[in-house]
Amino acid sequence: MATYFYTASSLDGYLATPDHSLEWLLRQDFDMDGPMAYPGFIEGIGALVMGSSTYLWLLEHQDTWEYTQPAWVFTHQDLATPEDADVRLVRGDVTRAFPQISASAGRDDVWVMGGGDLAGQFADADLLDEVWVQFAPVTLGTGRPLLPRELDLALVDVVRNRDFVCTRYRVARTG
Fold first, then answer.
1. 48-75 pLDDT, tens per residue?
2. Domain containing 135: what range?
């Protein structure tokens, strides 16, 4: 089992605009059957981890909850959960919740999706194994940062998927 931060970013290192918009990303040319694309990635995922901003964005932009995996939402809010969805609200430090998160994934992997700060918390706790970033051919100038902290990475793979440069890094362990 491994823990991945799989995301897309602008060339200048932003995941979303300041108001959480992804319109810039959705208008880019990307082959969903191509290398490092979402359909192949999600096949090996047993549990999802996200912050409340990502969770609320998903609820607002999806007609139905599309995930069958347990979804762990780190939040300080009392949030509604969709019917027939395995959404688990959690508060506190990622290290306390991680044993339950990894157990819920079974033999599959864990996907830290959405916010770079949450992925950074997993990295700070030595719980993040890889960072996969699909860099879109756009700059935003400001927004939600990819990883708002110092983190040492080793390049594992890089490929082109139409207009995107797709990268995969191993996280250097601090201990």
1. 999 999 999 999 999 899 999 999 999 9
2. 130-144+155-174
Spatial CA neighbour of 49 closest among 106, 107, 131, 119: 119
Q: Do 98 and 136 belong together in one domain?
A: no
- Six-digit token string for 139: 């700059």
CATH code for the domain in which residue 107 is found: 3.40.430.10
pTM: 0.95
The two tokens of residue 81 are 């959960």
Task: With CA atoms as reference, report the closest residue to 134 among 15, 3, 1.
Answer: 15
Our count of domains for the chain comes to 2
- Please spell the DSSP secondary structure of 53-120, one letter per residue: HHHHHHHHH-SS----S-EEEE-SS-----TT--EEEE-S-HHHHHHHHHHHHTTSEEEE-S-HHHHH
**Cα dihedral across residues 47, 28, 146, 128: positive or negative:** positive
Q: Is residue 86 part of a domain?
A: yes
pLDDT digits (tens, 9 = 90+) for 90-130: 999 999 999 999 999 999 999 999 789 999 999 999 999 99
8 Å CB contact between 165 and 29:
no
